[in-house]
Amino acid sequence: MSQRENNIIQMNALNDRRYQEFQNKLTDVYQYESTLSSIEQKQAKLSFSEKMTKTTSPISRSSIHKYS
Q: Which pLDDT score is estimated for 53?
């Protein structure tokens, strides 16, 4: 096998390894973004729920009778 062929094989192996590392990092990024999105959605729901409980004041029966 010539030196040129040897170099090509080594470069292909290196590129394959780099590609695998890239794929693994990309998978990690997708999982992180998915987790982050899920956390943000939960936080938004919680925030909305907190706003709703703070802004709505329950009217008790005694207060209804008081003003009627």
A: 74
**Residue in the structure block whose two tokens are 């062929």:** 5
3-class SS letters over the chain = CCHHHHHHHHHHHHHHHHHHHHHHHHHHHHHHHHHHHHHHHHHHHHHHHHHHHHHCCCCCHHHHHHHC
Predicted TM-score (pTM) of the model is: 0.52
The tens digit of pLDDT for each residue in 4-13 reads 999 999 999 9
Buried residues in 17-34 as b, exposed as e (16+ CB within 10 A): eeeeeeeeeeeeeeeeee
